[in-house]
């Protein structure tokens, strides 16, 4: 099993979510996050005054899936989240050793 964490622009969530559901992904977690990378924030105007926004609002999408689905899920997220502009985000993949469904006690793939 692998965990895929994707940092995406908030307005791309619906397209990414719909595409993953269409692929058969049964669960995901979405968290509002703030951060910066090469984009390094931006300047905004508020009541005529400029101020620096150091952390840009993003969404972190997390899914845990079978290894054989990882490449397709990564490509789907990339295709649906990509705008071609700076700040599109990143995808991180890590191995998951074990999963346990609290309600039923199922483990491994059955718990997904």
UniProtKB/TrEMBL annotation:
The keyword rRNA processing is assigned to this record: no
Pfam families hit by this protein: P-II (PF00543)
The keyword Transcription is assigned to this record: yes
PROSITE patterns registered for this protein in UniProt: PII_GLNB_CTER (PS00638), PII_GLNB_DOM (PS51343), PII_GLNB_UMP (PS00496)
Top-level taxon in the UniProt lineage: Bacteria
Positions carrying O-UMP-tyrosine: 51
InterPro entries: N-reg_PII, N-reg_PII-like_a/b, N-reg_PII/ATP_PRibTrfase_C, N-reg_PII_CS, N-reg_PII_urydylation_site
GO biological process per UniProt: regulation of nitrogen utilization
Entry GO CC: cytosol
GO molecular function list: ATP binding; enzyme regulator activity
Keywords, alphabetical: Nucleotide-binding, Phosphoprotein, Transcription, Transcription regulation
Similarity comment text for this entry: Belongs to the P(II) protein family.
Database matches in PANTHER family: NITROGEN REGULATORY PROTEIN P-II, NITROGEN REGULATORY PROTEIN P-II HOMOLOG
Subunit structure: Homotrimer.
Protein name in UniProt: Nitrogen regulatory protein P-II
């Amino acid at each position: 099993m692998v965990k895929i964490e994707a940092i995406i622009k908030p307005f791309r969530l619906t397209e990414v979510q719909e595409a993953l559901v269409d692929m058969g992904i049964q669960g995901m977690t979405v968290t509002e996050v703030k951060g910066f990378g090469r984009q390094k924030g931006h300047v905004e105007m508020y009541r005529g005054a400029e101020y620096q926004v150091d952390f840009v609002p993003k969404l972190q999408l997390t899914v845990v899936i079978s290894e054989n689905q990882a490449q397709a899920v990564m490509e789907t997220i990339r295709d649906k989240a990509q705008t071609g502009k700076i700040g599109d985000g990143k995808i991180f993949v890590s191995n998951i050793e074990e999963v346990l469904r609290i309600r039923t006690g199922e483990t491994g793939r059955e718990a997904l």
